[in-house]
Structure formats: C-alpha cells, structure tokens
Hints:
Layout: E1 13-18, H1 27-36, E2 40-45, H2 55-62, H3 80-87, E3 90-96, H4 98-105, H5 112-118, E4 124-128, H6 132-136, H7 138-149, E5 153-154, E6 158-160, E7 170-173, H8 177-189
Parallel strand pairs: 1-2, 1-3, 3-4, 4-5
Antiparallel strand pairs: 6-7
Helix pairs in contact: 1-2, 1-8, 3-5, 4-7
InterPro entries: Flavin_trans-like, Flavoprotein
GO biological process, one term: coenzyme A biosynthetic process
GO molecular function: FMN binding; phosphopantothenoylcysteine decarboxylase activity
Amino acid sequence: MYIPGVSGTQQRRVLIAVTGGIAAYKAPGVIRRLREAGLEVRAAATEAAFRFVPEETLAIAAGSPLFTDRTWWERSGRVEHVSLARWADLVLVAPATADALARVAVGLGDDLVSATVLAGARKVLWAPAMNPEMWQSPATRRNVETLKGWGHGFVGPAEGLMASTEELPGVGRLAEEAEIIAAARAALDGPAGRDERPG
C-alpha cells in the first residue's frame, strides 16, 4: 500500500492515454479500475477522443485534471509530453486506434499522446480497439510488429460484436477491463525500464 512520505515506498504511476475510437466511452471504467488497483493514475486524451467521451468524465474518473493538446505546454516552461513520459512507469493507450498505432510507429508526434510515447516512455502497453478489417490490414499488422520490436506490449483486441450494428463479430473489440488491468500490472512487474523517477 502506498503511504505518502514514507521512505522506501513508492506508488507506481500509470498514464492512461485515450485516443479517438468509439471504445473511448469505456475509458472511465478502465481508469477507475486502475485506481482501485492502488496505482497512481493520470489521464491524457486526444481531441478526437472527446467525440466519444466528455473531457469532464475522464477528469472525474482520474481524480485530477486531464492532459490534452490544449494543455500541452506547461506554465512552468516544461513540455508536458516530456514531463509525462518521465513521470509514468507505464503509458497505457486505451483504446488505441489504428491511427494512434500508425502515428507512433512512423514517428509522428503531433499530438500529446503520440509525443509522450515517443518522448522516452519507460514502458508502453497498447489496448487496440478498431474494426476487424482495420486490425487485420497489412498496414496495421506492420505497425504492431514495429511497436513490438521496440518492446511495447499489447493486450487484445478481443473477439466479439463491434459497437456498430452493421459490424459482424470479429477480432477488434477493446479487451475487458479486468484483462487490461492484469496486463498493466504484469507490465509494471516486468523488467525495469529507466531507473530515474523525476517528480
């Protein structure tokens, strides 16, 4: 259990990054489960995520202000994507869209989420959610393999009905909350990343 101010005890830190897929509406539940697991959580989101989940809902679930493209530059002069990458023991991208995977895989850092992942994040765990055809496309498969080659982890996607009523069952659903939390804890308990833990 984390006790503030007690030497030798440090709460593990997870930045959950929400991207703009319809499964973003499930992100508040994932955030709550992370906090219930005893993790210190901050949340970031792309502007596209707000099409599917209100900014206020994510902030309330996280229990702290949300990091967005509009807050990218801190008043202190620090740059948030660098600060967040250094703060987090794990960056969990949930849901991760095909676009988010592609941006990072090709080195685009033009939004806060992709920039944070590229700014030296210790560990990265992707929870993809997208149309089954998109998940199976050669471009997405190539991007996934690239990110795995960098040491990034993946949880899901799961098989089942998609959000759209026009979709047939397939592999593309966001993994269940319990599976995502278990994968996050396993990633945190795995081999250490960078040693430094700046505040």
